[in-house]
Write a structure and sequence with these properties.
The structure holds three protein chains of three kinds.
Chain A: E1 10-12, H1 22-50, H2 54-57, H3 63-66, H4 69-96, H5 99-129, H6 138-171, H7 175-207
Helix pairs in contact in A: 1-6, 1-7, 4-5, 4-7, 5-6, 6-7
Chain B: H1 7-40, H2 45-67, H3 77-108
Chain C: H1 2-10, H2 22-25, H3 29-54, H4 58-66, H5 71-101, H6 111-145, H7 154-176, H8 201-229, H9 242-274, H10 287-320, H11 328-341, H12 357-369, H13 371-385, H14 394-416, H15 419-425, H16 429-459, H17 465-492, H18 507-536, E1 571-573, H19 578-584, E2 598-600, H20 606-622, H21 626-646, E3 652-654, H22 656-671, H23 695-699
Antiparallel strand pairs in C: 2-3
């Protein structure tokens, strides 16, 4: 005879621990972290826009005087291509599983990231030499708050890429390594996403 | 030796690859267009700004869909809601901020 | 040459900065108080170190607490921090009341000293008392309420605590070396810009708040993911306890509302350290953007402060009415509505800043709208009590005081939401009375209710009731006497943050407020006495059965204190208020069918490292000791990278046999313990096993 006992409230059943969800959990946490970062960038963007007034220029350099299309175009090309090459690395992890291929794509991404940073460093050096320093006006403070903030994030991403390459070299394509690269991928794609905002609002918006 | 790809795996690979390529080309197009527009100066300033803005937003959606893989499928539902919620919040905060600060600016002149 | 060397090593520290010497240079009541505070900190630290050494507690403190990743221990440490800072923050309030009581005659404090007081009072109470207190309670309770073993990111949890502690340390150090900011807890520029305040004050504020804010953001991330992912099987969202719902909303607010503060503070830092022009008067700064950014944080922040208390009240009112919560779903919807709407009202903090009436009107309407879901909650709590079998326990007393006083304060909030009214009372004591009316009966009483309610679960014995009532009485009377007169003087036109005044009509009211401050001091003393008496009498009030209040939610289905792994086996949930339902069917103390090994995360040094070197980083930045700042930053970065590379090196496994043995032993003791009805809830016979008193009704 089958006696069905209706559970009341709660029952204690052994053997149910959530370890298998660990990768998804960590990724969720990273998504949330990215969202908080998104708020920071959003507010930096808005601050920048409110400082496109003559008062904020304070008689100093204006966007039209400062920004040039070719530099911005090259930086954009580098970063957008790097997002694509990271996608190729993700594909290699998912399907190909050959360590050499993964590392190659990551290396190309890293190189493009470094190119981006070099171009940006050159641009900033030029600006500073011209006297377009953040201490000159509110507008320049806002520019140097927003764009180097993005650059700092790219730098962090580059450092992280280097560390991942070292780890892959040592341990190979393990589960934890793939999980980390998934987070780095999220970070890297977001970097390009924010850059879309920057080249649109700062450079194109400034020159148009 | 790479693991032999089964047929469905091969298809899945090609599907994913197409996704990245589509995203890349769309993004490139959505980038080159506003750059070209600004460079040539054919439209008025305000029209150009509108185009830049709209294309920029579209490109962000392209990035989210093709690179971050957040689409309308059930598995990605949580990320979609999170992004929509964050987007709503950030829009509210930026819109309120811009409205208020430009309002104050106008009243100071 | 030696001056160059000195400033390289010690930055801008000089003899003038040493607060404990000030009374010797300028003898007078003002400086005696200043130096006295510095000496209290120095002696306090020395005495604490001496006691730890005398009773050989360094070892256990290190191994059992500082490096622990157990959410319950981390929670307790947060609350200990909060209670210590409460003493300082409340005494600062008392000193300010005393000053204003004597303010017609100039009082006894210098303007500068008074300004530091109101700045530290606000900063401490919000960032280092209320936030740690609620974070601590959320830490202890939420994983237990959702049937989890720990939070999703235990190491991150310890890191958050370390960051909060480092911020608190900076504020404490500011009592000993240098002055704190005189710009209020909101630190508005241009007053906090270097041309008005070149000293260390605003820098202390910036780094204390930035470090603590980062910790809070990470806590928010931790708990959103925990509540989404670690719930026991069967616990759907609509079966979560109301406190967990409020914790979820609070955590989401933490993730999205702390970033504006980080942006505002770091922009101010850029202005101060690097000569930027975000908020300056000259060269194109926009100081109104600071108010905008700060309050985009500040308004959701006040909901962060009050929502956990709303959750506590929900639990407390339901438990002590012996009834399930009325309108659970409406409470959930109201909570999420409040959370979302809280991002749309921030402008009401600066109606007078210069935008036009249309802008003000929209935000005024939004502010009034947000009062509606709160009203829904109050009706739900009242309906929960209706026809319940109410026990006037200490938490219930706080809850009742809350329901009356908070609603009054909320009404003044609706008044303030009207821009024309706000133009009259902005920056007067009316405003000060309003927000204390929200924070004390709202936030603080809730935290005290939660502290009393969950104390036996954490420590295994109940708090002394008599002194609990005395403390509650003193808090309630003290609050009413201290703050109700402030509404009156505010309407009469007295400006806030005024060290002195010239209108004699204010004086009698401020005398009453001064008397209130005496009651608040008595309340603090009562709580200390309560703690002493409770610990002394702990064998009499032992909580053996784990359920001293015949409560409804999952955390009560455990031994007190709770073992490190929380539950012997993760429960399957089949209903809302699952524990109440189980008790109703006579299944309150079940034995698991089988056991399995439990894996727990290992200890971490990250929290301690962050607390120590985060403080060092702050000190280095404040005092321009760049070598210290770089060194501290490097240590923290290397530690985090090392942790990332090495991972958790010592995870713990607890064998099934041991869990089974312990749990069975506990069940044996529980069976030997006499169950008590609610009439004996305060009696010494209550050892945590509830009699099946309401059975069927309680199970509904």
């Amino acid at each position: 005879m089958n006696i069905v006992v209706r559970p009341h409230g709660l029952t204690w059943v052994a053997g149910h621990d959530h370890d298998h969800d660990r990768v998804a959990t960590t990724l969720s946490g990273f998504w949330l972290f990215m969202m908080s970062d998104l708020i920071i960038f959003g507010l930096m963007f808005a601050t920048y826009v409110t400082m496109l007034t003559p008062e904020s220029f304070a008689g100093g350099p204006t966007p039209k005087e400062l920004f040039e299309l070719p530099g911005a175009a090259m930086e954009t090309a580098a970063l957008l291509t790097s997002t694509f090459t990271f996608g190729m690395a993700s594909l290699a992890i998912k399907y190909d599983r050959r360590l050499s291929k993964v590392m190659l794509w990551l290396l190309v991404t890293l190189a493009l990231g470094v190119v981006f940073l070099a171009l940006e460093a050159r641009e900033f050096t030029y600006m500073l030499a011209e006297g377009a320093v953040p201490q000159r006006s509110g507008f320049l403070s806002a520019f140097f708050g927003l764009v180097p903030l993005h650059g700092a994030h790219v730098t962090a991403g580059v450092i992280w890429l280097v560390m991942m390459l070292i780890q892959l070299n040592r341990t190979g394509l393990t589960g934890p390594a793939s999980s980390r690269i998934a987070r780095l991928a999220l970070f890297w794609h977001f970097l390009d996403l924010i850059w879309v905002g920057i080249f649109s609002v700062v450079y194109l918006g400034g020159i148009a | 030796m790479p693991a032999p790809k089964t047929r469905s795996r091969e298809q899945a690979y090609r599907h994913d690859l197409r996704g990245y390529l589509t995203g890349f080309f769309l993004a490139a197009l959505l980038t080159i267009t506003p750059f070209a527009l600004v460079a040539s100066g054919t439209f008025s300033t305000s029209a150009t700004l509108w185009v830049i803005g709209v294309l920029g937003l579209v490109q962000i959606v392209v990035h989210v869909r093709y690179f971050l893989h957040v689409d309308l499928s059930r598995q990605r539902r949580e990320e979609l809601y999170l992004m929509l919620f964050s987007a709503a919040l950030v829009t509210l905060m930026i819109a309120g901020m811009l409205w208020m600060l430009f309002n104050q600016h106008a009243r100071m002149m | 040459m030696s001056h160059g060397f000195w400033s390289l090593v010690f930055g801008r520290v000089d003899v003038e900065s040493l607060d404990f010497l000030k009374a010797f240079f300028h003898p007078g009541l003002n400086d005696i108080i200043l130096s006295g505070a510095a000496w209290v900190v120095i002696f306090g630290a020395a005495v604490a170190a001496a006691l730890l050494t005398r009773f050989r507690l360094w070892g256990p403190m290190w191994s059992k607490w500082l490096i622990s990743v157990d959410h319950k221990r981390i929670g307790v440490m947060y609350i200990v921090l909060a209670l210590i800072m409460l003493v300082r923050g409340a005494l600062e309030g008392v000193v300010m009341r005393a000053q204003q009581s004597d303010g017609l005659h100039g009082g006894f404090l210098s303007a500068d000293h008074f300004a530091q007081l109101f700045s530290t009072h606000g900063t401490i109470m919000i960032f280092f008392m209320a936030m740690p207190f609620l974070t601590g309670l959320i830490n202890i309770v939420v994983p237990l309420q959702i049937g989890a073993r720990d939070v999703s990111f235990p190491m991150l949890n310890s890191l958050s605590l370390g960051l909060t502690v480092s911020g608190a340390m900076l504020v404490m150090i500011s009592l000993v070396i240098g002055d704190f900011s005189t710009g209020g807890w909101s630190a508005y520029p241009p007053y906090t810009e270097p041309n008005f305040q070149p000293g260390v004050g605003p820098d202390y504020w910036i780094w204390a708040v930035t470090l603590a804010g980062l910790g809070s953001t990470l806590t928010g991330i931790n708990f959103v993911v925990t509540i989404f992912r670690e719930r026991a099987p069967g616990m759907s969202f609509l079966r979560m306890p109301i406190f967990t719902w409020n914790a979820l909303c609070t955590s989401l607010l933490l993730v999205f509302a702390m970033p504006p503060l980080t942006v505002a503070a770091l922009m101010l830092a850029a202005d101060r350290y690097l000569g930027f022009h975000f908020f300056t008067n000259a060269l194109g700064g926009n100081m109104m953007n600071y108010a905008n950014l700060f309050w985009q944080f500040g308004h959701p922040e006040v909901y962060i402060l009050v929502l956990p208390s709303f959750g506590i009240y929900g639990e407390v009112i339901s438990t002590y009415s012996g009834k399930r919560l009325y309108g659970y779903v409406t409470l959930v919807i109201a909570t999420m509505a409040i959370g979302f709407l809280s991002f749309g009202v921030w402008l009401h903090h600066f109606f007078t800043m210069g935008q036009d009436a249309d802008v003000n009107a929209i935000f005024g309407i939004a502010t009034m709208v947000i009062g509606i879901p709160t009203g829904v909650k109050v009706y739900d709590w009242m309906a929960t009590m209706f026809r319940g079998r109410i026990r006037f326990s200490v938490p219930m007393v706080y809850a009742l005081a809350f329901m009356v006083l908070f609603v009054l304060g909320g009404l003044t909030g609706i008044l303030l939401a009207n821009p024309p009214v706000d133009f009259q009372v902005h920056n007067t004591l009316f405003l000060v009375a309003h927000f204390h009316n929200m924070l004390i009966p709202g936030t603080l009483f809730g935290l005290f209710a939660g502290y009393t309610y969950w104390f036996p679960k954490v420590f295994g014995f109940r708090l002394n009731d008599r002194w609990g009532y005395i403390a509650a009485f003193n808090w309630i009377v003290g609050f009413v006497l201290s703050f109700m007169p402030l509404y009156v003087v505010g309407l009469m036109g007295m400006t806030r943050r005024a060290v002195s005044y010239t209108n004699p009509a204010f004086e009698p009211w401020l005398h009453v407020a001064g008397v209130g401050a005496i009651f608040i001091t008595a309340a603090l003393v009562s709580m200390c006495v309560q703690l002493y008496v409770s610990i002394r009498d702990r064998e009499l009030t032992r909580d053996i059965g784990g359920d001293p209040w015949d409560a409804r939610t999952l955390e009560w289905a455990t031994p007190s204190p709770v073992p490190a792994y929380n539950f012997p086996v993760i429960p399957h949930i089949h209903a809302l208020d699952a524990f109440a339902v189980a008790k109703g069917a006579g299944l309150g103390y079940q034995e698991p069918v089988s056991y399995s090994d439990i894996h727990l995360p290992g200890d971490t040094y990250i929290g301690v490292i962050t607390a120590v070197f985060g403080t060092a980083l702050g000190v280095g930045l404040v005092w321009y000791m760049w070598w210290l700042a770089w060194l501290a930053f490097a240590v923290i970065a290397v530690s985090l990278i090392a942790r990332a590379v090495l991972g958790d090196r010592h995870p713990v496994t607890i064998p099934a046999a041991e869990i089974k043995r312990k749990y069975r032993a506990w069940l044996e003791v529980v069976r030997a313990t006499a169950p008590v009805t609610r009439a004996l809830e305060w009696d010494y016979r209550n050892h945590g096993v509830a009699a099946a008193e309401y059975t069927k009704e309680a199970a509904e």
